[in-house]
Predict the structure.
Amino acid sequence: MAPHDDRSDGAEEAMVAEAEKRPIATIVIVIAMQTEALPLVNRFQLTEDLDSVFPKGVPWVRYHGIYKDLHINIIWPGKDLVSGVDSVGTVSASLVTYASIQALQPDLIINAGTAGGFKVKGACVGDVFLVTDVAFHDRRIPIPVFDLYGVGSKKAFSTPNLAKELDLKVGKLSTGDSLDMSPHDESSILANDATVKDMEGAAVAYVADLLKVPVIFIKAVTDLVDGTKPTAEEFLQNLAAVTAALEKSVIKVVDFINSKCIAEL
């Protein structure tokens, strides 16, 4: 094995520092559902990439275009090839995030979407949260150290100026592959100190961290997980209205990002 070269670490750190001083040029917005994606596609006047940058045969969809000084790419995992429903969940989110980073080399990733919220933590239907931390709640591995790997706690990229300027609520996000919440999930979510739960965020964070791309999370609450209504019923009932709130917040975030460098967020 070759000896570790400290100079390579220093060069990498210098490159990162230099990148943080350059204006953000390319952003990738990962969105799980078509219903959530299309209002933003229309608002930013993006076009679907018919000559896909993704492997042949996958259902993943890229909408892209120029908005102000930014090259915006909205990535939607598309419809499942067997069932025809939106390809939600951590597997599709991981895959499209990895493929998008490899193909597009973005300066910043935004994972935007709807989520369940906890009223005990102050969440209300229609609230939009800027996420501070992410973790998994359904990767239970009760073996020392593996248990920490399973939870996979990570911090979102810190954006104090963005949070202050837009006056968004802030909170922690917990991710799992089920819409409902089992007793095991509930105890893990409590341990994660989460205010909102979704099905993609921590997976996006894992890939972004591996490939050293800053990532932020914008989550709008469709349902109260600890409320009285059935989750699926409340989710579908509020999806359209909450998607409109999500759209407004993402537009504000993108407008704030425009012409700024990473260090100014």
User: Anything to note?
Assistant: DSSP finds eight helices and ten strands in the chain. The chain has a mean pLDDT of 93. The first strand starts at residue 26 and ends at 30.
